[in-house]
Design goal:
Strand content: 15-25%
Number of strands: 4
Strand order of the largest sheet: 1-2-3-4
Low-confidence stretches: none
Radius of gyration: 17 Å
Oligomer: single chain
Order of helices and strands: EEEE
Helix content: under 10%
Shape: elongated
């Protein structure tokens, strides 16, 4: 596959039971707002779970104070 510029990515939102759209631009995403799962399409038709979900993240910060 050759490198392609994707300038028309679309973002969709719906329920997990909704039918995901087809014929969309490659790289478009679908967020299931009731499950917080995200999907991406690499061919404009089939949807694949996206490796980065939009769930909550925990961040730990360590602070060292020297006097």
């Amino acid at each position: 596959m050759a490198v392609q510029l994707i300038g028309t990515i679309q973002k969709y939102v719906g329920l997990s039971g909704d039918t995901k759209p087809t014929g969309v631009p490659v790289g478009s995403t679908f967020l299931e707002y009731n499950t917080r799962a995200t999907y991406i399409t690499y061919d404009g038709t089939l949807w694949t779970p996206h490796p980065e979900d939009l769930g909550e993240k925990t961040v730990t910060i360590r602070i060292s104070i020297r006097t």
